[in-house]
Design goal:
oxidoreductase; NAD(P)-bd_dom_sf; six-stranded mixed β-sheet; alpha/beta; binds the ligand N[C@@H](CC=O)C(=O)O
């Protein structure tokens, strides 16, 4: 007789994690993790438990896990059961420093003084930095990092890679795996971070740093791993691309930039979008990951879009052409050869410049919020990929994709 085998109930793997930076991307990541909790549990047997969350006001720590919903409510100003608060303004956005206050005043939350005493807040400026907290054994004892720990880093880009660079290095020191949206640390410290990850035997993934949700790095690194590249080209910055397209449609530079900021797509400092820096960082990260890690970010020549006027765009249009901010890595001598990719660095030219392209060119057709990449190689010929990214959700989803890759790589031990 046919018998049904007794169903095996998958045991949940709790993965402790930290989120540093709770802006457009960080909030989106929390939202996805919350919305997809059931899929994460049923399909992947995983539950992410945030024990540390940090914004510009400071760092919040609870070993029992922080309430993701409350963090989102605080950061988005959506409020949390406003009737249950006496005098908390639930319409405005609050820093993480107000987390404990909000919890203690929320009658519905029903938390005891003992629960509250298990939550610590370390204010920025007056206390330890997030990076220092990662090294502090009193705040984050060794068992926090046992059985795997993931740091999600989504703070703004700075020219020196900080504060992300120090946070990432210190977290690795404690054995944390790293998932970055912030390109600063990896663009500034590419080789150092790779070496440290190897020495500490942790995963360092940063797929979200290049074109958000478009898996450019995965395609280059995994899918095309056997290819010898001759050229890589791309439109890697949504904000500047949108501005150029909007100016072509008769709207102003200022209005287009404002729209990119409203959508949470522009950088915290949007100068980085329009002066070519963001594109240069993405090109450098892609090149270092896929071809050679022997160059530096300063080897990328760059210009921005600020010299492109409405008149120039009109003239180009009349000639059947389009201005695009193009990132390109071109091999100087296209002889091919069998050199190891690591030794190839000096044979390449990396640059970001405004190009005048025929209107039916692949990159010319990356319109509005689209970003695209072309890979040209010996084995695969020419390959074209593009994404239409109108909000930070795909970037956050790329962070989750990396986190799941890490969980798969490590075959995380299950525990309740
Ligand atoms: N937006 C996008 O579409 C994409 C963004 N990225 C990258 O992701 C990162 C985050 O971008 P985004 O979310 O848009 O930026 P936001 O400016 O929206 O958010 C930045 C967050 O970092 C916090 N922060 C600032 N300084 C510190 C600090 N010293 N310590 C801890 N937290 C700090 C801010 O705090 P507070 O909330 O208090 O201001 C805020 O929560 C950037 O590096 C960006 O380049 C990558 C791909 C796409
Ligand atoms: N500001 C960037 C998004 C993050 O990488 C862009 O406009 O493309």
């Amino acid at each position: 007789m046919f018998r049904l085998s007794s169903p095996t109930v998958p045991r949940e793997t709790v993965i402790r994690c930290a989120l540093v930076g709770v802006g457009s991307v960080g909030q989106s990541l929390l939202r996805i993790i919350k919305q997809r909790a059931q899929v994460l549990r049923e399909k992947h047997n995983i539950r992410y438990l945030f024990v540390l969350v940090s914004d510009s006001s400071g760092t919040l720590v609870s070993h029992h896990g922080l309430d993701v919903e409350r963090i989102l409510a605080l950061k988005t100003g959506t409020g949390f059961d406003s009737e249950n608060f006496d005098d908390f303004d639930t319409t405005s956005k609050h820093p993480l420093s107000t987390y404990k206050v909000s919890l203690s005043r929320d009658k519905k939350a029903n938390v005891s003084d003992r629960d509250l005493s298990q939550i610590w807040f370390y204010p920025a400026g007056t206390s330890q930095t997030t990076a220092e907290i990662f090294l502090n054994d009193q705040i984050l004892p060794a068992e926090t990092f046992r059985n795997n720990f993931i740091l999600f880093e989504a703070t703004p880009v700075n020219h020196d890679g900080e504060p992300g660079l120090s946070t990432v290095k210190n977290a690795m020191e404690r054995g944390a795996h790293i998932v970055l949206a912030n390109k600063g640390p990896i663009a500034v410290g590419f080789r150092e971070l790779q070496q440290k990850a190897k020495a500490k035997r942790v995963n360092l993934l940063y797929g979200a740093t290049v074109c958000g949700g478009l898996p450019v790095l995965n395609i280059g690194r995994y899918d095309l791993s056997m290819a010898q590249f001759t050229e890589i080209r791309g439109v890697f910055n949504s904000t500047s691309n949108f501005i150029l397209c909007e100016m072509g449609a008769g709207r102003t530079y200022e209005a287009a930039l404002k729209e990119a900021q409203r959508r949470g797509i522009a950088e915290t400092d949007p100068t980085l979008d329009v002066n070519g820096s963001d594109t240069a960082s993405k090109l450098y990260i892609l090149f270092s990951t896929v071809i050679s890690s022997h160059l530096s970010l300063s080897d990328v020549e760059k210009e921005g879009i600020t010299e492109i006027t409405k008149e120039k765009i009109e003239e180009a249009k009349a000639a059947g052409k389009v201005y695009k901010l193009v990132a390109s890595a071109v091999k100087r001598d296209n002889q091919g050869g069998e050199e190891k990719r690591e030794e190839e660095g000096d044979k390449w030219e990396l640059c970001v410049k405004v190009e005048l392209l025929p209107k039916d060119d692949f990159l010319a057709l990356c319109d509005g919020w689209q970003m695209g990449v072309e890979f040209h190689s010996d084995l695969f010929g020419s390959m074209y990929h593009k994404v239409d990214e109108r909000e930070p959700t795909p970037t956050a989803a790329a962070m989750l994709r990396d986190a799941l890759t890490i969980c798969g790589n490590n075959n995380f031990s299950r525990r309740d």
